[in-house]
């Protein structure tokens, strides 16, 4: 029947539709999919059982098709139509693709390419779940470099149908976003190798995606370790050394560190529930850790992120609403925040959260900074200390 239909894929789809009413595809699903993809039944490992018997093979299959995207997309439509018609084949088809991925070593390079294109197209249109890609992490195809090469072709086909966001979103949902390095042997499982390999292959979007995911994972681990060290009241010098080593080892920029450092510092204490007492407690606590924050706020971007984090924290924790200005001034005095950063935050870089309250709190201090900058007031914070009611 398939041979009679020839290259007319509409005829193939109709033949499969009508045959399903006579045959129970449940019993023959794996055989059916073997034939449609490889042209004959496959033995364990991927060799063709009927390789020498041409009467039991068909040349009208994915592996014998032209190696171009449109042709393989037409074959994908055959599978879509068949599974829409016989819904019970859905799970069997997923298992078939997972099996074929394990057999990649037995297929020729062009057969691997066509299977990669077919899989990518079917992933793009939702016929297959991204979880099937776990088969690519098998040692024998990873060591040979087949897994990474196959993945590149698959992702290209996927992105030709949709876009990079479709790919990355599906990978996240399947919890595969942090496993992409497993496409490579253990001695090459690093971000640099992955990024170069995928960028050279024209998939820079996935290189960038992996960098972001790895960075997020690293930050979570760093935050967890920092929290532990702060709760144990480790000396500031030791904490600084640890953070700098982690930044260097994981290529973390300063702006990425300052925010989580603030979070850890604020989580390291049990805060008083009384508003009139919490400000004093906060200033005492933050004064202790100001030298630590100063080390990692040497860039304008880092300072702005810290200011926004302070603003967000004071807004989300109502007892801190009136403490915002005092915290900022403390950080200014301790060389954590610069005059330029505070003015930029005030003029344009503040968040919407509690905007009117915090800008009003900061108004007089900002005016003082501007006047001091213009030289109309001696540039000494002591002039303003009584107004701010902070002991200097």
From TrEMBL:
<comment type="similarity">
    <text>Belongs to the BZW family.</text>
</comment>
<dbReference type="InterPro" id="IPR057397">
    <property type="entry name" value="HEAT_5MP1_2"/>
</dbReference>
<dbReference type="GO" id="GO:0016020">
    <property type="term" value="C:membrane"/>
</dbReference>
<protein>
    <recommendedName>
        <fullName>eIF5-mimic protein 1</fullName>
    </recommendedName>
</protein>
<dbReference type="GO" id="GO:0005737">
    <property type="term" value="C:cytoplasm"/>
</dbReference>
<dbReference type="InterPro" id="IPR003307">
    <property type="entry name" value="W2_domain"/>
</dbReference>
<feature type="domain" description="W2">
    <location>
        <begin position="212"/>
        <end position="379"/>
    </location>
</feature>
<keyword id="KW-0963">Cytoplasm</keyword>
<keyword id="KW-0810">Translation regulation</keyword>
<dbReference type="InterPro" id="IPR043510">
    <property type="entry name" value="W2_5MP1/2"/>
</dbReference>
<dbReference type="InterPro" id="IPR051245">
    <property type="entry name" value="eIF5-mimic_regulator"/>
</dbReference>
<dbReference type="InterPro" id="IPR016024">
    <property type="entry name" value="ARM-type_fold"/>
</dbReference>
<dbReference type="Pfam" id="PF25504">
    <property type="entry name" value="HEAT_5MP1_2"/>
</dbReference>
<dbReference type="Pfam" id="PF02020">
    <property type="entry name" value="W2"/>
</dbReference>
<dbReference type="GO" id="GO:0006446">
    <property type="term" value="P:regulation of translational initiation"/>
</dbReference>
